[in-house]
Model the fold of this input.
Amino acid sequence: MPVNKSPVINKYGAISFSYEEPLKCNLQILSQIKKFKSRPSFSITKEFILKFNETQNPEEKQKLLDLARKNILRCKRRLGLKTLGYGKHVHLPAAWTEVIYLAQCKGEIQEEALNILYASLDYASFDYDHLPALFFVAESVLYRLCCDAFQKTYLYSVEIKLAKIGYLVFLRLFIFFLHGHLKSFKEHLLRLQPYLCALSFSGHSYYKYPNISSNVEFILKTAEIIYNKELLSESVFSLVENKEGDENIHSDMGHLKLNQGGYEVNHLLWHCVAAWSCVHHNNPQLSNVLEHVISHKTQLQKECWLNSALALFVLGEAAKLNMACLKALMDLMRNFISSVMSVQNQEESCKDDDFSWVWNIVYLYATILAGICLYAATSNLRKTAFIGFCVCKSPRKNIFPTDTTSEEQPELKETSILGLLAYFSSKISDNCDQLVWTTYYGLVYNLVRMSWELRGDEEQDGLRNIIWQTLQKTKDCEKDKRVFNAIKIAQAELNDPTDPFTNFSTKVPSNVGDETFSKYIGWRIANTLSKLFFPSIDACPRPLRKRPIKQVQMKYSNKKQDSMKERVLHITVREHPSLSELPMFPYPDFFTRADKELARIIDHHWQEELKIQQKEDAICEAEELKNKDLKEKNHFREIMKRREEKLHKQTKPYELPPRAEAISSEKTQRN
Done:
């Protein structure tokens, strides 16, 4: 039976993992992972893990800790944390496997291993060769959640990170499922079945913690769809083209349908991917596509919410670059929340179980909105995602959540961060619906993470101050324990319970792998789905195919990345035999390129003129110095000539006469 976990969270999560099952990984998985690289002599082994966790000798413990840290550094290099997974030294499957082993070492090694694994799963490209390692990571994470974490009375920070890693793994597996690449991995799917069954029975122990519960629900829903299509029926996922010959990107007829029992992708997801493609390729049909997105807004209310989650994921990625996409995203969710709340208020025509999944969509939207506030391309997009489109005479009144003691209940006018806070804070109570308190929980939870992410960034002082003021106002006005749990859990997840605005000793720069939000997975998914749905638009082969054994050396730049200053996501073009990555932003048009070339020419001529002017100035200065020396010599000659005429002496001023003359002059003076 699942235990009722207490909200007390330890910093390092001292969980005594069982080591037998995770280390008995499938030999077939290991052989596929290591067929290109053999295990080095200093790899992590079962004996090392047991010795690391059980030793009591301080000297031996320090030696093992140093060895584990060296392995962490080696894993960081093989994961390509500084090059976003590119480089001839990068081997993601082998590195993921070794990091999973390192994550069984208790203490700071466990925390850092899970951090870099989460970062790697966020930015890594989709490659067919990653599938065996992904299944191994999925099995290890599910085992630890089901067989270790569920048995603990308290909630540990490690559980939060394991749930986030599991979410990214199953999100990647679902994308591979859409491409039809899981058909040859039925044995691996069967190995996950017992853990998924245990997770479904014990997952409700995280009911009080929506940040973990949402990840668990996503894992279970993804597994349900994959198992129904891959194991219970022979599924075929194919693109049904429009028979009328309409090839426009905004056509209603172009969509993915069921074929021989395959998985169906609804119109909403299809048009959201089309919107991202329009933004990515600077297509003028964007306005038409967004109109079709809004026209299919009712599809958000269907119970198959995984399509809706992917649609919001992709549209949120487009909203980081385009204001029209951000407005469409916020309008879509305003209609969805208003419709659901109005239906739930009608007790006779609705049951509570009918909308048990709705909170997952709204919670995911709150997380997407927080990512836009942090990583959007322009400050105007970030400000709009936080405050909204409403232009008021006194905007300071709308910065903080509305007082819950007020008799007037506000309407949902804005689905920005502050708009949602004002709306749901007025409706929260002890007997409120799950949608209300989970959304409010998610907003506060993401505010804490946003404030930590913006620590020390002087360029984001305005947004950081508003976030801090909003949190302080929430703490003062709100008395609900669930909201305080959100703050406490977010701080424990960050391993920094102190306030980043008052703790001046906090280290400002963050290391690669310490990020709390997923920065790159949204772009990866949108780009991959775009190539799947619209293969004719991209002048490159379809992704996720098997690449030949002979590797092509990939060029990468070793530029230092400043994660605190660079808030815009830039993914550069790399040479890859199976996946040609496109830049995130469209190429500049003719006039932009002409302006840059003209500026370059003007700068070149200005530099040449500056060099000529410097040479002329040097010549003039030399002539002036020469004339000055000549004047001084002539002046000295005139002085000496006048002195000789008056004193009849040829000695220089203040010069002593010769020795003989001095003696004779003394004798004459004595006489």
The mean pLDDT is 76. Residues 375 and 567 are 5 Å apart (CA to CA).
